[in-house]
Amino acid sequence: MPNLIDRNFICRQAEVDVPIKEKLVVCCVGRLNPEKGYMLLLQVVDRLVLEGLDFQVWILGEGYLRESLYW
């Protein structure tokens, strides 16, 4: 079976300059339900903000925790 990955394309992409982002962005995608741990995520975010870190958190999804996660 032939390799479906284009090795030449990957090598060319490795040589491309990538701009450095000024701010870290954490993106979470999933159902907004308790078992996904978003409340723990928000506790960690709160602690990191208090420590002075500059970042963004994006939470993408739908579920019954939507209203309680909004702040």
Describe what this molecule looks like in 3D.
The protein has about 70 residues and is of the alpha+beta class. About 35% of the residues lie in helices and about 15% in strands. It has helices at about 5-15, 40-50, 65-70; strands at about 25-30, 55-60. A two-stranded parallel sheet has the order 1-2. The protein starts with 6 loop residues before the first helix and ends with a helix.
Q: Short summary of the structure?
A:
This protein has 71 residues and is an alpha+beta fold. It has helices spanning 7-14, 38-50, 66-69, and strands at 24-29, 55-60.
Helix and strand string, N-terminal first?
A: HEHEH
From the spread of the alpha carbons, the general shape counts as flat
Oligomer: single chain
Lateral arrangement of strands in the main beta sheet: 1-2
- Alpha-beta content class: alpha+beta
Main sheet characteristics:
2 strands, parallel
Report the count of strand segments.
Answer: 2
Number of helices: 3
Low-confidence stretches: none
Percent range of helical residues: 25-40%
Amount of beta strand = 15-25%
Radius of gyration: 18 Å
